[in-house]
Write a structure and sequence with these properties.
single chain; mainly beta; Maltoporin, Chain A; 5-stranded mixed sheet; 6 helices; globular
Length: 833
């Protein structure tokens, strides 16, 4: 995993830039060929490619009626139900991988993904990713600690399509977040009743039912209802149902002569395991291999033995005894939410149009998980460290029986002795994070057309809150193996070193009530200069306010005032005193773009924008009040000539003011950085012969820190952490028409370049290639059978190192890192009616 500095420099600069130049040259050549071939005859099928540049998109547009994708002056990707089914995503974030310019680490499970966009620097989560439902953000902040937007959303068959907008007009519309917006658009009922029932199973025990139905209620009222329920122990088998829950949605539409009114509601209750870095072996040549006893593709710390926990968090009283609370690991990183909203679109006559949207979210998004503290060591080495006072233990200075000279381990669950001191052991932090969320957003716009210009004025209002209660730390000693077991340690002088496996108390607590409000005024203009040239621009003036009350924390507390009970010494406790936060800032964002139609099937566009991101609750709690700013420049090309289509965007961004917040060795560390990135995003679809489709999406980028001091050193010039310079997905598919239906074969080859897990560029994540494949059988127009295999070669590949350690994190060749999920197979049967 450690690469010499000279080799790192080569990977960080020369290779990505050379590859970027090659990719750019190849793209230009491809575009030239496409331009010359635009009038050539298409193959016999004559069908348009699946990029569907004639599609009307609504994300990032000033007016609700949307715009033709070919006419848009920004980079946007459309994902239809066939794309979703063929991908068989294991989470909402897993679907984001279909969008170029976006890098997704979905190895953490159903929720808790890390999503990165276009070289924007971030330490994790999804700082610059907004998830919308029906063009309204489901929760206005894109990320809070232990909460990113995709965590709050579950994908099912009620979704008609997804639109992924990168950069472009993002800084001006919706919540003004400048990175990427994924807009999930629900199915609406139509004049003809129709529905679907789908059963899904897998080789890791999935049992899932999806149902959706849509149709008329009356002549001008329509409804669509549906949802899912599923249960599984997960690919990483937790020994208990780790992913369990469901969702119900309803969508009602009223169509009028001059517009449409729509209402929707969702109820989601779902629990998911939070998967974190596991032990692996780092080899001298930079490769990785499995840690003995821990399967890299299916292993997890989760087990019935560590599932239930009694956390000692205060000196007071609790349900599990004095000063304790009880927690269940099966609650995982889940949600219990209500989401409702609606929209109205009206033609007011005389070239006036009005549109309005709103939504309301309320519920809980809690996280219960076990977080690795350091790489494993032998039980003998662990004991020696404790006896040497590595944790400041009182055992070495003496007790009633004098200083401890040795100790013994027992399994906390059974009481049996651990006799093999070569057994690998490690500490896991048993973290409890509770979040009670509520938000309301509304977006109102009024448009007027004056000849070739359409002017839009609008207002966006968001009011949102989070009530947080955290207990981080609570270290537990366990065996370093899949489905870990708790260990107790007894010292020979009678000192109590552990309690039910717990060897530590909380190191960081939060009790906070946050409330934020954003009010933005928007002014936009669309100017159809000629039949082929369209220019648009927009301004957004936004005021953000936050007020919060936080309970203060006292550190280094002995919870029972007995220094010889080592497991609850040095605790952080909430002390009953409070402080307040009062934040108020106003900022201007803007965008200007132009689209030029070269022919009816081909166009180019250019755009520049300036966007900001206000500090959110956790930033303000830690004193990081700076506003993040990014300037983005885009130049795009798009063409659809029947048998081939391309959508490519060259981008450059300049970023200022990112706060890197990490818990390192029990301390909250915040570093501020700037960066720059340039690259090319490519979507290409070719249909060389009838029924054969070859699709490719790719991102080629060079992103580095311009200025960053981290870990006390200047990291300027280092590669942006976590994001690969090159990532490519190649997806061929072939359909065989038959008398009774058809059979479709498809596969995906994914290549991911070397990355660094940390801004220090010490934790190397090696490149990898991953293979997926499947087939679907359509019987008539109603019945579909599908089988999809993921990671068919069971590739061991990493998406994340240990973000809680500065440096390489290597201990005798053992590292903590998060691999992609192991090989799995999913099968489904769908019936349409």
């Amino acid at each position: 995993m450690l690469i010499p500095a000279a080799r790192r420099q080569s990977r960080r600069t020369a290779f990505p830039r050379a590859l970027f130049r090659a990719a750019l040259a190849s793209s230009v050549a491809l575009f030239a060929v496409a331009a010359q071939a635009q009038d050539a005859a298409a193959p016999a099928s004559g069908d348009s490619s699946s990029l569907d540049l004639e599609e009307i998109i609504v994300t990032g547009t000033a007016r609700a009626e949307g715009i033709r994708k070919l006419d848009a002056s920004f980079a946007i990707t459309s994902i239809d139900p066939e794309d979703i089914a063929q991908t068989a995503p294991k989470s909402t974030a897993d679907l984001f991988k279909l969008t170029p310019g976006v890098w997704v680490e979905s190895s953490g499970g159903e929720s808790g993904a890390n999503v990165f966009v276009r070289g924007f620097p971030t330490a994790g989560d999804a700082e610059f990713t907004t998830v919308q439902l029906n063009s309204s953000p489901i929760f206005p902040p894109s990320t809070l600690s232990f909460l990113e937007n995709s965590t709050l959303f579950r994908l099912d068959e009620t979704i008609e399509r997804v639109e992924g907008l990168r950069g472009g007009p993002n800084p001006v519309f919706s919540n003004g977040q400048p990175g990427v917006t994924f807009n999930f658009i629900e199915k609406k009922g139509g004049k003809d009743p129709e529905g679907l029932i789908k059963l899904t199973g897998s080789d890791y025990g999935t049992k899932r039912l999806d149902v959706v139905y849509g149709g008329p209620i009356s002549e001008d009222w329509f409804v669509s209802v549906g949802g899912f329920y599923r249960e599984t122990d997960g690919i990483r088998d937790t020994e208990f149902p780790s992913d369990r829950g469901g969702q119900f949605s309803a969508n009602v539409t009223h169509v009028m002569d001059n517009g449409e009114v729509n209402f929707y509601g969702r109820r989601t209750k779902d629990k998911n395991a939070w998967l974190l870095p596991i032990p692996l072996i780092a080899e001298a040549d930079g490769g990785i291999r499995e840690f003995p006893g821990f399967d890299a593709g299916t292993g997890t710390y989760h087990s019935n033995d560590i599932r239930l926990a009694t956390l000692e968090v205060t000196r007071g009283s609790g349900a599990g005894g004095p000063g304790t609370i009880r927690r269940d690991l099966s609650d995982g990183r889940g949600i219990d939410l209500y989401l409702t909203g609606g929209s109205v679109e009206l033609d007011l006559g005389n070239d006036w149009e009005f549109s309005g949207r709103y939504n309301y979210l309320a519920g809980d998004a809690n996280t219960m998980g076990v977080v690795p503290v350091a790489p494993p060591v032998t039980a003998a080495a662990y004991l020696a460290n404790r006896l040497a006072g590595a944790n400041g233990d009182a055992a070495v200075v003496g007790a009633a029986g004098g200083p401890a000279t040795t100790g013994s381990f027992t399994f906390a669950g059974s009481g049996a002795a651990l006799t093999d001191l070569n057994q690998q052991v490690m500490e896991l932090g048993w973290w409890s994070v509770e979040k009670e969320l509520e938000s309301f957003t509304t977006d109102l716009r009024l448009s007027k057309t004056f000849g070739s210009n359409t002017v839009t004025v609008g207002v966006y209002i968001a009011d949102y809150s989070s009530k947080d209660l955290w207990y981080l730390g609570n270290n537990q000693l366990v065996t370093a193996e899949s489905n870990s077991r708790r260990l107790d340690l007894a010292l020979n002088n009678g000192v109590r070193a552990s309690r039910g496996g717990f060897v530590g108390a909380p190191f960081f607590d939060v009790n906070a009530s946050y409330n934020g409000q954003n009010i933005a005024g928007v002014l936009a203009d669309e100017w159809q200069v000629t039949d082929t040239l369209r220019i648009d621009g927009g301004l957004r003036l936004e005021k953000a306010t936050v007020d919060a009350t936080l309970e203060n924390v006292t550190f280094g507390v002995d919870l029972d005032d007995n220094p010889l009970t080592l497991h609850n010494n040095g605790a952080a406790i909430l002390n009953g005193t409070f402080r307040e936060i009062d934040y108020d800032k106003t900022e201007l964002s803007w965008t200007v773009g132009a689209n030029l139609a070269l022919t009816d099937e081909m166009g180019v566009f250019a755009r520049v924008n300036h966007g900001v991101k206000f500090p959110q609750f956790d930033n303000l709690r830690d004193g990081a009040t700076n506003i993040q700013e990014v300037d983005q420049y885009e130049l795009g090309y798009k063409a659809d000539i029947g048998y081939a289509a391309v959508f490519a965007t060259a981008f450059y961004n300049d970023f200022k003011g990112l706060p890197f917040q990490r818990f390192v060795n029990g301390q909250n560390v915040v570093d501020i950085g700037t960066s720059r990135a340039y690259g090319v995003e490519v979507e290409l679809v070719v249909e060389p012969v009838e029924n054969l489709q070859l699709a490719l999406t790719g991102t080629f980028q060079d992103a580095e820190f311009k200025k960053l001091f981290s870990g006390g050193q200047d990291r300027s010039g280092n590669q942006i952490s976590r994001q690969p310079p090159v990532s490519v997905r190649f997806t061929p598919s072939y359909e065989v028409p038959l008398a009774w239906g058809s059979v479709r074969f498809f596969g995906t080859v994914t290549y991911v370049d070397d990355r660094f897990s940390d801004p220090e560029n010490l934790q190397v994540l090696p490149s990898y290639t991953k293979y997926d494949a499947g087939f679907a059988v359509d019987v008539g127009e109603n019945l579909t059978f599908q089988i999809v295999g993921d990671n068919l070669t069971d590739k061991l590949a990493l998406t994340e190192g240990n973000p809680r350690v500065i440096g390489s994190g290597v201990s005798d060749g053992v590292v903590l890192a998060r691999p992609i999920l192991g090989r799995s197979v999913e099968a489904s049967v769908s019936y349409r009616f």
